[in-house]
Amino acid sequence: MQASTYPLVDAAEAAALVLDRTPVLPAEEVHLAGCPGRVLAGDLVAPVELPPFAASAVDGYAIRSADGGGRLRVAGESAAGRPFTGELPAGAAARILTGGVLPAGADTVVMVEDVEQGTDWVVVPEGFEAGRNFHRPGDDLRRGELVLRGGQPLGAAELGLAASVGLPALRVHRRPRVALMSTGDELVEVGTAPGPGQIVDSNRWALLAALREAGAEVSLLGVAPDRPEPLRELVVEALRDHDALVTSGGVSVGTHDLVKPLLESLGEVHLGRVRLRPGKPFTFATLPGGRLAFGLPGFPVSSLVTFEVFVRPALRKMQGFASVQRPTLRVRLGYEARAGADRTEYQRVTLVREDGELVAHTTGSQSSSRLMSLAGAHALVRVPPGDTGLAAGSQVDAMVLSLPD
Ligand code: AMP
Ligand code: MG
User: Fold this and answer.
1) How far is the CA of 262 from the centre of ligand 1 (A)?
2) pLDDT of 363-380, one tens digit each?
3) Residue located nearest, by CA, to atom 3 of ligand 1
4) Under 8 Å between Cβ of 257 and 269
5) Terminal C-alpha separation, the chain
6) Which residues have C-beta atoms less than 6 Å from ligand 1?
7) Fewer CB within 10 Å of terminal CB in the chain, N or C?
């Protein structure tokens, strides 16, 4: 198929199509050290109870409440990790420290602040409350209780829980391994002075950050020239051990736009043009072995906006996230948004708190080459196609990238 003959697909439809074709990656057993940010692959049931023993919540004295208040002999100590041995005799107390095991026979801890202490005796006040100041086994978690559901993203509390019930490794979804490649004869490495007509390859670094944030493991493949054979060789090699290929450039209509025909020869191209601004030439293909290829447009803003709309949700689905989209907030538009004729336009905005509500302000010229429109932007505002646009003051949906302070 000629690149220009790809049907123009509605942006929302295209996004749904990409997600539909995206597989969830299989689970693997990973040590806790590698689990932050991963997604649990199955339900986790508590193999033990927590706390595992009756543990003092304070520093004080463990007593038998039946002994009542008054002077008691101190029979020993129970510190964290060094329990009192044997049973607490009647008429005796044991010094106990926070986290210490409640000695057998004791049923109450009296706080150190509430007693009078001698060298080997203690006076417990009348009217202490029996059964207080210690955690009972299973208070925090019962054996067999559902600890975490499959699909749960693993953060601080979740990893702490897994460790506390004694699990050194968890079954989590694999992170997508993504090969990232820039295309274009005009591109030079950052740090190299561009010659006439040359520009620095900035997409590689922008997309590296975007991919990492989305949870991918990234291989940087550098720049492929605008020649079919070297491009094919690089891509075929990359696809050996990656789940997805992300390219930038080489997808718009022109003699040097080589990505679509290459992907056609390797797999099935499902999208070649979308009704989206910026990002009309966005290209999506599936390849043998359940692998995906995303051909992003070359202009820096186009590549990042199409990444947000199409690639990030797909990468999150691969990792097992239930929520694959950025959060959406209703915000007030602080400027008049002109529509992008026949295309949905994602306009870059900052959000400012004004009188208790969030107001979206434009980041200036929305040219697809102007990265300044995206640097520091808090959100993308979706402006539907048509000739009406959106009036200043109207309520709109904003895809939130970050919130203002
Ligand atoms: P293309 O989609 O290949 O026609 O690229 C469109 C325009 O995007 C090019 O003329 C460059 O100005 C720009 N561009 C392409 N690739 C990159 C890149 N890796 N880094 C920065 N700009 C790029
Ligand atoms: Mg190019």
Assistant:
1) 18
2) 999 999 999 999 999 999
3) 249
4) no
5) 49
6) 182, 184, 187, 199, 201-204, 248-252, 297-300
7) C
